[in-house]
Predict the structure.
Amino acid sequence: MEEVEVAPPRAHEVRIKILCTSICHTDITFWRQEGIHPSIFGHEAVGVVESVGEHVREVAVGDMVVPVFTAQCSECPDCLSDRSNLCSKLPNVPGSMPRDGTTRFSFASTGEPIRHFISVSSFTEYTVVDVTHVVKFDAAFPPEMACLLSCGVSTGVGAAWKVAAVEPGSNVAVFGLGAVGLAVAQGARMRGAKRIIGVDLNPDKFEIGKRLGITDFINPNDTGGKTVSQVIKEMTGGGADYCFECIGSTSAMAEAFQSSRMGWGKTILLGVVGNATPIGIPSHDIIRGRSVIGSLFGGIKPKNDIPMLAQKYLDKVIISIEQDFAWFYIHSPSHILILQI
């Protein structure tokens, strides 16, 4: 725990008092990398607006908001297109604020600057984010659920709903049943998938997953010597129509691809890999109709789509299993968590 200075927001910026933040595996992936320390990690959170800079109109002091790692300026060609959720006007600038490349964090003892993390940095009592990275919520919405909508749940549901556009009656395989994978299962169920196969090393995940749409479970350590792709092909009569990789493992990505159906199978990659390791996919399988697509934040346009997902939670279309998720609440009045190597 370190005491830091959090500077006031500049133009187009918002300073947020964090109410609730959770750990996403992406935080751990980046924490392990060299060259990005000291940084304040965390990107899945909810908070209350403490102050705003000039030209901020869409939120005000006291509003409950979720910060998100993808911007939506609503002006650039990407934000105006249904084909992308990657803002080209304000792309993510590693370690700093997107508009001026500077930081709002520094050590209280030395004044040494501290890096931001993917435009959010939520493992802190206060953070500063650009207004394009903020989504306003109704103050009555449960903050612990709003927290999950800022990354994990939105990423998974969005991948099934927007990126894959899962069709009714489809066979779906989900590799990795963490928060994102379980959210994919919900999204696939909402889209009318007939069979949703969960793949995970933890057998307890099946009981959790069944409440969210998982119909079958495969433990890779309990397949009788067969590969997971062989088992899925046997279960589905040729392979899953849609395979989602939610782990961040290149070997799992390749196995997910091999589990997809020849002719039209689609593999959606959601897991973040901490290095540049290539994925081994035979070229002749690609030209036989299979495809692979990446999914950042589930194709979600935050300001448009997260309020809709929040309403689906209130309407009980998206199921809450709060006891199966963990949150980290900020209690200390004057200290924050910085991960350093």
In short: The chain has a mean pLDDT of 89.
